[in-house]
Design brief:
32 helices, binds magnesium ion, binds aspartic acid, binds adenosine-5'-diphosphate, about 800 residues, alpha/beta, single chain, eight-stranded mixed β-sheet, seven-stranded mixed β-sheet
Length: about 800
């Protein structure tokens, strides 16, 4: 005989019930069918029972009745309808009577609730039986309360296996049967229930009682997935697993299987299949003793939400024998189930993970049991932390796999997830971690990605700025996206984009078209925090915030992003050239939160200047002197200017081609170069502030103080003679003009200098930058880095390369 169980969604519609018919007709053996109540009926019945107290159940009861009547209308031919509907109406009437009594006596005990909830399975099994009969399948109906004996709590009764087996021995193995799951009865003949999700268990009890050849559990997923498919989009089916692995997955939240289901089938070695009613052709999961020969070390990752952890600590714990036993005894007496236990080696503390609903009772009972020790200071007051969850990583073969926990913890740490407690059972079939409830989905996704999606790595980008660099960055990304996916298995998703007033956000990734419509259709924000908050709330793993602006409003938010373990990549140099404490705080935060802060493009566009300084420092060398031309814009301007075209015109050209900052005075007034040499000196280990950088200005006052670009250009034009004079003087000496930044003996300076043909700076063309560094090891000949140091396209490619470094390409 074969036992098949169909869940709530499988029995909820005409179409689905037809599928069930198709499935049972395929069986070569007599079948024993177990069904759940139609989907959500058990919840609705609970609600009805609760509402009965205030006599407000009528509407919900009507809704429940209508769902059943509609289903029957679609299933039955006219001649059958009335008779079958009568059965349901009769049950609805009984429910009404019970609800009335609840209201009158103002008591809704678990005993009454069990009776009320049993109606779901009674009605669904009856309807299906009548439908199969109508369709020509000979099948008998069984009231599970006559077959399953379960005592104790009405809502989660304990099965008496011997009695149940004896009762089931009356069943004729040559016939087909259908019965409702979930329901049972106790010694007194009262209705009891097997716990929410208990129909799976009923089916396992029938399978064991009937010594069935197999048990199939049919639901709306193709078997046990390696993670909850509602949490991890990329979850995939586990083909084979052992009973023990299946139990662990089920116990730690894989709802597709009710945990007690395993015991009866495991004891009788009955093969268990988890299948999908909607895709019967799919293999699903096969559960047996051996669990197959799958080489995978980890089978799946699961989670239990709503956990609290309590900490019992104190010197008394180490000294006194039997303290742990007393803790567990107190909890047992208070009926509290402990899910996870860890004890520190020094035995100074015990940490327990338990269901949040039990937390207060647990604390109370322990405090009471140890009143004396707490009073004398031998034990501390019990500490409690709510709002936690347990993540469980499961697999029989995890044992003997060196480095697995390390890989697990580093993946979580890298994404800023703090692990509060760890328990690894002696069986090593399960590693359980307690993390903050808000990180539940994120942690599961990270673990899933690390162990199951070797193929594809998802990266989530939040981009500020769609100006010159920002736009070019989006172009580079567009170009590289497919290649990255195909060759590096990296799937980059742009989740949010913002300009100076609007933002768009799409948790599943923005399309190019949506990004193009930012100006027209974006959501206006009043505070840039709102954009960062989106990234924080998404709480995605591998999140990167990219700043392609020159705005302080944006750079002020790096700390907030880094605090949430969101890496920051910026071409904006404001943050790194603001006060030294805030610069160093960003670097420390990134380190503490295990994420990256990258800003290579803040100096010299894509040239590897910062990286080189960092490498020099890491190797133990010391930078004594830096001489540099760091402004591509100024270099472009002074290379082009030969008085044949007015200076103002050349500046305008540089601006139009994207070589200057949006406000060219930031370049001409020295601020940009001063910031850059300040950043380089800080990277080289010097603690410096902006006022430490001297600047020998070369602009006439009215140009330097111009309130906007228009006035600046007109003032510049008026002072053409001033610029021509500077140029001519240098030209007469055979020299060229360069704005040179310098760090020398700890002193920082920026000035417009004449450089002679012997200087390596003389031949610096176009918008190139050059940095020459003397170190303890490079004493006579400096290290020189030279190349294009400005331009939106090249800066964008540098930003892109920083992003690649963050994601480790
Ligand atoms: P039924 O009503 O048929 O008993 P359930 O709703 O109880 O079905 O169980 C199936 C659901 O379990 C799936 O729809 C899925 O959302 C959820 N689920 C959670 N974790 C897992 C997992 N690891 N594998 C498969 N399903 C899971
Ligand atoms: N109908 C019950 C519930 O919803 C039992 C089950 O579906 O397994 O919990
Ligand atoms: Mg279920």
């Amino acid at each position: 005989m074969e036992v098949m169980k169909f869940g709530g969604t499988s029995v909820a519609t005409h179409n689905n019930i037809q599928r069930i018919k198709g499935i049972i007709e395929q069986s070569q053996e007599p079948v024993f069918v177990v069904v759940s109540a139609i989907s959500k009926a058990t919840d609705q019945l609970q609600e009805i029972a609760n509402l009965a107290l205030s006599n407000q159940y009528q509407e919900s009861l009507k809704a429940l009745e209508n769902r059943h009547l509609e289903l029957m209308d679609s299933l039955f031919v006219e001649s059958n309808k009335e008779r079958i509907k009568l059965y349901v109406s009769d049950h609805i009437e009984q429910l009404r009577d019970i609800c009335h009594s609840i209201h009158v006596i103002q008591e809704r005990s678990n005993k009454i609730l069990a009776r009320i909830q049993s109606f779901g399975e009674l009605m669904s099994s009856y309807i299906l039986r009548e439908y199969f009969t109508q369709e020509g399948i000979v099948i008998d109906w069984i009231d599970s309360r006559q077959m399953i004996r379960a005592n104790g709590q009405y809502d989660r009764a304990e099965v008496d296996f011997d009695k149940t087996k004896k009762l089931m021995s009356q069943i004729d193995q040559n016939k087909n049967y259908i019965a409702g799951g979930f329901i049972a009865s106790n010694e007194m003949g009262e209705t009891t229930l097997l716990g929410r999700g208990g129909s799976d268990y009923s089916a396992a009890l029938y399978a064991s009682g009937l010594e069935a050849s197999r048990l199939e559990i049919w639901s709306d997923v193709s078997g046990m997935q390696n993670a909850n498919p509602r949490v991890v989009k990329e979850a995939g089916p586990i083909r084979e697993m052992s009973y023990k692995e299946a139990f662990e997955m089920a116990f730690f939240g894989a709802k597709v299987l009710y945990p007690p289901t395993i015991k009866p089938v495991m004891e009788n070695d009955i093969p268990l299949y988890l299948k999908n009613t909607f895709h019967p052709e799919e293999e699903g999961t096969f559960i047996s003793k051996s669990g197959g020969h799958d080489e995978g070390k980890i089978k799946g990752v699961s989670s239990l939400p709503d956990i609290s952890i309590i900490n019992i600590s104190g010197v008394g714990l180490a000294k006194e024998q039997g303290t742990a036993r007393r803790v567990f005894q107190a909890l047992e007496e208070a009926n509290v189930n402990v899910i996870l236990i860890t004890q520190s080696c020094s035995e100074q503390s015990i940490c327990l993970g338990l269901s949040a609903k039990d937390a207060d009772t647990a604390v109370e009972s322990i405090n009471k049991a140890f009143q004396k020790e707490i009073g004398s200071g031998m034990l501390n007051e019990v500490e409690i932390e709510n709002g936690q969850c347990i993540i469980a990583v499961i697999g029989d073969n995890m044992k003997n796999t060196v480095g697995l926990s390390g890989k697990l913890f580093s993946a979580l740490g890298k994404n800023g997830i703090n692990i509060k407690a760890i328990a690894q059972g002696a069986s090593e079939r399960n590693i359980s971690l307690v993390v903050d409830k808000k990180d539940e989905g994120k942690a599961i996704n990270i673990i899933h990605q690390k162990f199951f999606q070797k193929a594809i790595k998802q990266v989530h980008l939040y981009i500020a700025g769609v100006g010159n660099v920002g736009d070019q960055f989006l172009q580079v990304l567009k170009k590289q996206k497919k290649l990255l996916l195909d060759q590096n298995k990296i799937d980059i998703k742009i989740v949010g984009v913002a300009n100076s007033s609007k933002m768009i956000h799409e948790p599943y990734g923005l399309t190019d078209k949506q990004i193009d419509m930012l100006r027209e259709e974006g959501e206006a924000y009043t505070d840039f925090d709102q954009f960062i908050d989106k990234a924080i709330n998404d709480n995605y793993y591998n999140s990167i915030f990219i700043d392609n602006t020159a705005s302080q409003i944006v750079s002020d938010r790096y700390k907030k992003a880094l605090d949430a373990s969101i890496s920051v990549v910026a071409c904006n140099k404001i943050a790194c050239s603001s006060s030294y404490p805030s610069y160093i705080e960003l670097i420390r935060t990134a380190r503490d939160k295990n994420c990256d802060f990258k800003y290579e493009t803040a100096v010299g566009a894509a040239l590897p200047i910062i990286k080189t300084i960092q490498d020099i420092m890491l190797s133990g060398d010391h930078i004594n002197r830096i001489q540099a031309v760091l402004s591509g814009s100024l270099n472009f301007i002074f290379n082009k200017y030969d008085t044949s075209t007015p200076f103002a015109e050349i500046v305008r050209q540089a601006k139009d081609e994207g070589y200057t900052e949006p406000n060219p005075l930031l370049d001409l007034g020295g601020t940009d170069v001063m910031r850059k040499i300040l950043i380089l000196s800080r990277e080289a280990g010097y603690i410096k502030e902006m006022p430490d950088v001297s600047f020998n200005g070369f602009l006439p006052e009215s140009v330097a103080n111009a309130p906007d670009n228009d006035i600046m250009f007109s003032e510049m034009l008026k002072h053409e003679a001033h610029f021509a004079n500077i140029y001519n003087k240098a030209a007469e000496n055979g020299n060229r003009l360069k704005v040179v930044a310098e760090l020398n003996k700890g002193i920082l300076s920026v000035e417009l200098r004449e450089v002679s043909p012997e200087s390596p700076f003389f031949h610096l063309e176009g918008k190139d930058n050059i940095v020459a560094m003397h170190t303890d090891r490079y004493v006579n000949e400096p290290i020189i880095i030279k190349g294009a140091g400005a331009g939106a396209e090249i800066t964008a490619s540098g930003v892109f390369s920083d992003v690649m470094k963050v994601i480790n390409v």
